[in-house]
Write a structure and sequence with these properties.
By secondary structure, the chain is of the alpha+beta class. It folds into two domains: about 5-100 and about 185-220, no CATH class; about 110-175, no CATH class. The chain has helices at about 15, 70-80, 85-90, 95-100, 105-115, 115-120, 170-180, 195-205; strands at about 20-25, 35-40, 60-65, 125-130, 130, 140, 145, 150-155, 160-165, 165-170, 185-190, 210-215, 215-220. The strands form five sheets. A four-stranded mixed sheet has the order 2-1-13-12, with no helix packed on it. The longest helix is centred in the last third of the chain and has 12 residues, at about 195-205. The protein is elongated. The two termini are about 40 Å apart.
Length: about 230
C-alpha cells in the first residue's frame, strides 16, 4: 500500500501501527558492530478475514465518487484522512493502482497506453440478455458471458423455440465497467473504528521468540556478531 508521508505523524496513521525492528546499522560512521537502528517493520501486515464481512452491522456499502482517493474517503467518513489505511484494509486492497478506481485522467492515460483507438472499438465479449417464456418464467438470465452467436432452445407452452439475445461489449465499455465496479466498497462504520484500531494493535504485537524485545520491538540477526 502507498500512504502519504505527510500523515505518518498521526497517532492513527498506518505507520504508527507498525511495530519496530532493531536492525544492524549500515551507517559508515557506526562506532561498533553492536550499533542498531530502529526501523519500521513494513513487512508486518494485517488482513481482514473474509468471515468478518458476514457481520453486516459493522459495514455499509459506499460508492467512491469522481476522483476520490482513500484519504478523501476517510476524511468524509471518519473526519480523519490518516485513516485511509482503514478504508484499504477493510477492503483487503493491497495495490491501489490496480484495485482502486482510477481517476478520469488516469483512466484516459491507461487506455491510451494499452489500446489504439481502433482496438477500443473491437468487441471484447458478449453477455446474455434476459429471456422470458410466455408465462413470464425466466429462461435466460442477463449478464452471463457467452460466445458470439450464442442461442438457447426451450419449450414455451409446448412449442420449441430458439432465441439468441446477447449484447456485445467493446474493449472501451469493458474497461469503463471494470473501473466502475471498483467504486463500490465496504466501509467500516465510524463507531467501530476504535475497536478495529485496538484489534489491529494486538495483531501487530510481536509474540515471544529469540528475537523478542517488547511487543513492539524485536532485534534482527546481526551477521557481524558471531554467536559463541
Amino acid at each position: 500500500m502507498t500512504y502519504s508521508s505527510s500523515r505518518k505523524g498521526s497517532k492513527k496513521s498506518y505507520f504508527r501501527q507498525l511495530p519496530n525492528l532493531d536492525y544492524p546499522s549500515l551507517a559508515n560512521d557506526r562506532t561498533s558492530a553492536y550499533d542498531y537502528n530502529k526501523v519500521k517493520n513494513i513487512f508486518k501486515r494485517a488482513v481482514l478475514r473474509e468471515d468478518v464481512f458476514d457481520s453486516y452491522t459493522q459495514f455499509e456499502k459506499y460508492l467512491v465518487e469522481g476522483d476520490d482517493r482513500p484519504d478523501s474517503v476517510a476524511s468524509k467518513v471518519y473526519g480523519d484522512p490518516s485513516l485511509d489505511w482503514v478504508v484499504l484494509t477493510t477492503n483487503n486492497i493491497i495495490n491501489i493502482r490496480d484495485e482502486w478506481p482510477m481517476s478520469q485522467q488516469d483512466l484516459n492515460n491507461y487506455l491510451e497506453n494499452k489500446y489504439t483507438s481502433q482496438e477500443l472499438s473491437y468487441v471484447h465479449h458478449y453477455e446474455t440478455l434476459k429471456i422470458l417464456d410466455s408465462f413470464g418464467s425466466l429462461i435466460q438470465p442477463e449478464g452471463i458471458e457467452v460466445q458470439e452467436g450464442h442461442s438457447i432452445t426451450f419449450l414455451d407452452n409446448g412449442v420449441s423455440k430458439t432465441e439468441s439475445k446477447t449484447k456485445s461489449f467493446t474493449y472501451l465499455e469493458y474497461e469503463l465497467d471494470l473501473n466502475e465496479e471498483k467504486r463500490e466498497i465496504d466501509i467500516l462504520q465510524p463507531e467501530y473504528v476504535e475497536v478495529f484500531l485496538r484489534d489491529i494493535g494486538n495483531i501487530m504485537e510481536y509474540k515471544p521468540s529469540n528475537q523478542f524485545v517488547t511487543g513492539k520491538l524485536k532485534k534482527t540477526e546481526n551477521p557481524r556478531i558471531i554467536s559463541p
